[in-house]
TrEMBL record:
Family label: In the N-terminal section; belongs to the glycosyltransferase 51 family.
Membrane topology: Single-pass type II membrane protein
Keywords on record: Antibiotic resistance, Carboxypeptidase, Cell inner membrane, Cell membrane, Cell shape, Cell wall biogenesis/degradation, Glycosyltransferase, Hydrolase, Membrane, Multifunctional enzyme, Peptidoglycan synthesis, Protease, Signal-anchor, Transferase, Transmembrane, Transmembrane helix
Region (Disordered): 627-660
Pfam families noted in UniProt: PCB_OB (PF17092), Transgly (PF00912), Transpeptidase (PF00905)
Entries under PANTHER family matching the protein: BINDING PROTEIN TRANSPEPTIDASE, PUTATIVE-RELATED, PENICILLIN-BINDING PROTEIN 1A
Listed name of the protein: Penicillin-binding protein 1A
Length: 842
């Protein structure tokens, strides 16, 4: 008995000593570690990494940028069934322990002892996991574990249980770049948290342990087993009833990837936004949860995208079938697995699905799309597929299916307006469209190419192409400032000018049709796009003057050639710069600067940037008080000069402007968030009367000139100009009314010819018409009223001079009032000379 008491006493002494040593060890450890422990107070307002979101003007998603998917959610918006699932899976006693589960730590310690050092189960509570994920590395070290415990105790002291759980549910990685339960629910199920079933809640809770290895997409069997275990734990803790448990266990796994739905197809614009936001906020822009509101309405962007794609496909089909994208020799016994392997490297491109021809005969072909769908194509589905010979020629229309398609061909299919499958091919040519609001330069639509995935080069802002005849309105505007009028007579006749750069030392420009009309009025010359008239006109006003005058439309002098070829549109411009230049005519003579970001909000919805762009603001009080005459804009408003075309053309690559940020002339306007600011006035660069006269000429281009196809839109407020370059390398149409200025370009990136007859009116105008007709449908006409100082005078159509009322060749023409007396004086002198000539005969 005494021995037993002695042993008991020693046991108690040893136990007490061990406890004392343990407490002492913990105290020493805390004394050593405490100075290095982070402050946990910051967790109260910890900013989660949230990707950058880009929205249209009407709030539809254009893009998200960031490495993580995360949708922070308040704990009050997390349904109880999801909380219970997570607690059952990870920490059933969460609301009862002080942040550390001593029993769990003891079990983990015993496991280390009996296994000889295996650090398997960690025994970490939710609070400890929060400590590890916010402050520590995942290394399995005893020192790290001890630090984790100390931090967890501090967290419990600083935060409530709900605050800790909220951090946990928003922070944890749950597979497939999804962080937090809300992002995981959206990715796996396409649902918000309140829409999740009990089984889906349990599945999400099951991914916390091994998110990359055990999730409902990568390892469905393991995930289902883990989910059912979580459901069992929920039943054991009385969170669900037996009936709910059985129903949830029986529910199949319906998870599959749900990428965040892109509602507006504007990838070129999205990339411009990303660059501009990074420039303003730095790399934090991609993680701070900013929401960018662009100026682009979703409907207009969609109309632009469809117009560009439809126009390019129409052009491409005019030039014939270039053959399959690839051809494979298929074994006779090839099956679905072989077909899937053959198509594995091909994805959908702008609605064109890849397919494999598995059988072909004279009457029909079978095209394999997937294990769930094969398509039978007959001759009508490929009637357009004349064989491509070169850019100017195609062969005869096909009469047999197997003359077009062979077994083993990899081709493209698309659906027509009736939903029927048709043979398709990805266009080789490219196109771009930029549409801006003439009032303030806000971009209304932007398409930089046929497909962003295939080519990220943004032709809408980065291309440096020759505008051809679409540059002539700027020349005519400059001439009107030098005393020329719409009725001035210029000779459309052959011209030979010295040019040392040419083999024979002579430059002989010509009209597109190689015909000459003789003396003609400038109005008719622009309507018919006469090149020789433009060259003579430029020669009359001077190249140096015109290069300086072109800066009034936003162009840099470096982009304008210092010779007479300027008259034929040999400058280097982008669709955005052309839309901007024509906006001057659309708004009454003011140079606005394109922009595409209207507002930027932080993660809490508070505006951190609101744009205040320079506006035409014709009727603003500030504008009415502005008496400054028209003149060149400030130097910083002219477009960035383009790189030379020869370098890019010789390399077979698209030419690019020298703008390093890839947004062209677009800017981020002055910021007025947090207060009101007076309107910023755009500089007045041309006289309103000059503007009105040029616009009237361009209205005639549509009424009876090279743009006459646009009359089909049945609007009287449209004005514009076609443009084509040598060998049909570029096709343009730039047009406007009071609400929109839109430029469309079509061409090849390597400067190949579009083919004989592919003028701007044929290749580019249909795209402009489809877009403009769609976005202006139902809107009232918008055009500038005739300004003071314009007179309408009866003139002789042949001489361009004022005439009497009874003249059978009399027509009405518009002039600046100061030109009328001068022209009448010239008419009187001309009459005297004619009479004198008649007397001299006798």
């Amino acid at each position: 008995m005494q021995i037993f008491r002695r042993l008991l006493r020693w046991a108690l002494i040893l136990a007490f000593s061990g406890l004392l040593l343990a407490v002492l060890a913990v105290g020493v450890a805390y004394w050593l570690i405490a100075p290095r422990l982070p402050s946990v107070a910051e967790l109260k307002n910890y900013p989660m990494q949230v990707p950058l979101r880009v929205l249209s003007a009407d709030g539809k998603l254009i893009a998200t940028f960031g490495e993580t998917r995360r949708i922070p959610v308040d704990i009050g918006h997390v349904p109880d069934r999801l909380k219970h699932a997570v607690l059952s899976a990870e920490d059933a006693d969460f609301y009862h322990h002080p942040g550390v589960d001593w029993h769990g730590i003891a079990r983990a310690g015993w496991h280390v002892i009996v296994t000889g050092g295996d650090k398997g189960p960690g025994g970490s509570t939710i609070t400890q996991q929060v400590a590890r994920n916010f402050f520590l590395s995942p290394e399995k070290l005893y020192s790290r574990k001890l630090t984790e415990i100390f931090i967890a105790l501090r967290i419990e002291h600083e935060l409530s249980k709900d605050q800790i759980l909220e951090l946990y549910l928003n922070k944890m990685f749950l597979g497939h770049r999804s962080y937090g339960v809300a992002a995981a629910a959206e990715y796996y199920y396409g649902k918000t948290l309140d829409q999740l079933s009990v089984a889906e809640c349990a599945m999400l809770a099951s991914t916390f342990q091994l998110p990359s290895a055990v999730n409902p997409i990568n390892s469905q069997k393991r995930a289902l087993a883990r989910r059912n275990w979580v459901l069992g734990e929920m039943l054991r803790h009385d969170y669900i009833t037996r009936a709910v448990y059985e129903q949830a266990v029986a529910e199949p796994n319906r998870a599959y990837p749900h990428e965040q739905p892109i509602e507006v197809d504007a990838p070129y614009l999205a990339e411009m936004v990303r660059r501009q936001v990074l420039d303003r906020f730095g790399n934090d822009a991609l993680t701070e949860g900013y929401v960018v509101w662009t100026t682009v309405p979703s409907g207009r962007q969609q109309a632009a995208l469809e117009a560009v794609r439809t126009g390019l496909v129409a052009y491409d089909r005019r030039h014939g079938w270039r053959g399959p994208e690839a051809h494979l020799e298929l074994p006779a016994d090839a099956g679905d697995a072989d077909f899937d392997r053959a198509l594995s490297g091909y994805g959908s491109v702008s609605g064109m699905q890849p397919g494999l021809v598995t059988a072909s005969s004279e009457k029909q072909a079978t095209v394999y799309l997937s294990s769930r769908e094969s398509v039978i194509l007959e001759l009508p589905a490929m009637q357009w597929a004349r064989p491509h010979i070169n850019e100017d020629r195609v062969g005869a229309a096909p009469t047999k299916v197997d003359a077009v398609l062979k077994r083993g061909d990899i081709i493209r299919l698309s659906r027509d307006d009736k939903g029927e499958w048709q043979l398709a091919q990805i266009p080789a040519a490219q196109a771009a469209l930029t549409s801006i609001n003439p009032e303030d330069g806000s971009i209304q639509a932007l398409v930089g190419g046929f497909n962003f995935v295939r080519s990220k080069f943004n032709r809408a802002v980065m291309a440096a192409r020759q505008p051809g005849s679409s540059f002539k309105p700027y020349l005519y505007s400059g001439a009107f400032e030098r005393g020329f009028t719409p009725a001035s007579i210029i000779n459309d006749a052959p011209l030979a000018l010295p040019d040392p750069s040419r083999p024979n030392g002579i430059w002989t420009p010509s009209n597109d049709d190689d015909k000459f009309a003789g003396p003609m009025r400038l109005r008719e010359a622009l309507v018919q796009s006469k090149n020789l008239v433009s060259v003579r006109l430029l020669d009359a006003i001077g190249v140096r003057y015109m290069r300086e005058y072109a800066t009034r439309f936003g162009f840099s002098q470096d982009a304008i050639p210092a010779n007479l070829s300027m008259a034929l549109g040999t400058a280097s411009v982008s669709p955005m710069s052309m839309a901007r230049g024509y906006a001057v005519f659309a708004n009454g003579g003011y140079l606005v600067t394109p922009y595409f970001i209207h507002q930027i909000d932080d993660r809490n919805g508070k505006a951190v940037y609101v744009a205040n762009p320079a506006r035409a603001c014709r009727n603003c009080q500030e504008r009415l008080l502005d008496t400054r005459p028209p003149g060149p804009p400030p130097a910083d408003m002219t477009a960035t000069p383009a790189n030379n075309l020869a370098r890019a053309g010789s390399a077979g690559e698209p030419a690019e402007s020298s703008s390093v940020d890839g947004v062209g002339e677009a800017v981020l306007p002055a910021d007025v968030h947090g207060g009101n600011a007076p309107p910023v006035l755009a500089p007045r660069v041309i006289d309103t009367r000059n503007d009105y006269l040029i616009t009237s000429l361009m209205k005639d281009v549509i009424l009876r000139g090279t743009g006459s196809a646009a009359r089909a839109l049945n609007r009287d407020d449209l004005a514009g100009k076609t443009g084509s370059t040598n060998d049909h390398r570029d096709a343009w149409f730039v047009g406007f009314n009071g609400d929109l200025s839109t430029a469309v370009w079509v061409g090849f990136d390597d400067y190949s010819s579009l083919g004989r007859g592919e003028f701007g009116a044929k290749a580019a105008l249909p795209i402009w018409m489809e877009y403009t007709g769609t976005v202006l449908k139902g809107l009232p006409p918008s055009t500038l009223p005739m300004p003071p100082g314009i007179s309408t005078v009866l003139i002789n159509r042949n001489s361009g001079l004022p005439t009497a009322a009874g003249d059978p060749d009399g027509i009405n023409e518009m002039f600046k009032v100061e030109d009328v007396d001068r022209l009448r004086s010239q008419a009187a002198q001309q009459k005297e000379q004619d009479q004198q000539h008649a007397y001299d005969i006798f």
